[in-house]
Design goal:
Blueprint lengths: L1 E6 L18 H19 L9 E6 L9 H7 L3 E4 L18 E7 L19 E6 L2 E2 L2 H11 L4 E6 L1 H9 L8 E3 L1 E5 L2 E4 L2 H17 L14 E7 L2 H7 L6 E2 L4 E6 L2 H15 L4
Parallel strand pairs: 1-2, 1-4, 2-3, 4-7, 7-8
Antiparallel strand pairs: 5-6, 5-11, 9-10, 11-13, 12-13
Helix pairs in contact: 1-5
Length: 280
């Protein structure tokens, strides 16, 4: 059995603002490793632990240089680490059909979510709105759809309350197992739950997620080819993006493009968001 864990930051307990996520911030790095350790502990406690050959962790926040390989190896010698940027498939790099289940750790609400901590889609400086086939999407559903294209289910999402509302109550991924780390009171305001509760929930639900019958878990997908609509924060960003031959300029801040597979869709979104944030 192989497990894939995609890790982000904004959905972790104790993180309230982007200023707390700087790469040289010692407390932030410690908190990040702590959450990963809880998830790994849950996996170790599972009844299928002896069947697990590899646990791949994708450091998927910003440039992906936040988690330390040595620290992870000390937690579990089966861990392989994907880090650095730019890279193909970004938050899902290295995922293929050999994996049995995907777990998301530290994920956050999508663009424009009221009471969603640090809500954004890949870049809060570029993307103002993001849709696939006229359906609002966030990083969770985009990544889940790529896993679904490979016939791999999402076994667990750990994140903040705004994302929980989007996935479960608003029906984006209504059946997914979810652990809420904090209550989002605004974009930069949170109430973090007691650490003993967060730790216990992540351990318990990580254990349950790898013990589940993966064949019975739903796969999330979009119809292909996909049409992506992105509204930029500024017209200057759209000015740059429309230079691509594959992109249509719809209006001042609105661009549109299409892709034949979810993998291409995901990579195009990441690349176009990155281009939009370029200054020259």
């Amino acid at each position: 059995m192989k497990i894939y864990i995609s890790c982000d930051i904004e959905g972790l307990a104790g993180i309230a603002t982007f200023d707390m996520e700087k790469e040289d911030h010692v407390a932030f790095r410690e908190l990040y490793h702590q959450h990963v350790a809880w998830m790994l502990e849950g996996i170790k406690q599972s009844s299928v632990n002896d069947q697990i050959e590899e646990i791949t962790i994708s450091d998927s926040h910003s440039r992906g240089v936040n988690l330390l390989y040595q620290r992870l190896a000390e937690m579990d010698e089966r861990v392989s680490l994907i880090n650095g940027f730019p890279r193909m498939d970004y938050m899902m790099s290295g995922l293929d059909e050999s994996y049995d289940v995907v777990l998301f750790l530290g994920y956050h609400a999508g663009i424009g979510k009221q009471y969603g901590a640090m809500d954004h889609g890949y870049s809060s400086r570029v993307a103002y709105d993001l849709k696939i086939n006229d359906q609002y999407v966030n990083e969770t559903t985009i990544n889940a759809a790529y896993a679904g294209e490979l016939d791999i289910p999402v076994g667990l999402v750990v994140g903040e309350s705004g994302l929980k509302t989007q996935l479960l109550e608003e029906g984006m991924l209504p059946e997914v197992r979810f652990v809420s780390t904090k209550e989002s009171l605004g974009r930069y305001a949170i109430k973090t739950y007691p650490i003993k509760e967060v730790r216990a929930q992540i351990i318990a639900q990580s254990k349950a997620s790898v013990e589940a019958d993966f064949k019975e878990l739903p796969r999330f997908t979009f119809d292909m080819p996909a049409t992506v609509d992105m509204e930029c924060m500024t017209t200057a960003q759209a000015d740059r993006i429309e230079m691509l031959s594959t992109v249509d300029r719809i209006d001042g801040r609105h661009v549109r493009f299409s892709a034949k597979t979810m993998r291409k869709t995901m990579n195009d979104i990441v690349a176009i968001v990155g281009l939009g944030g370029t200054t020259f």
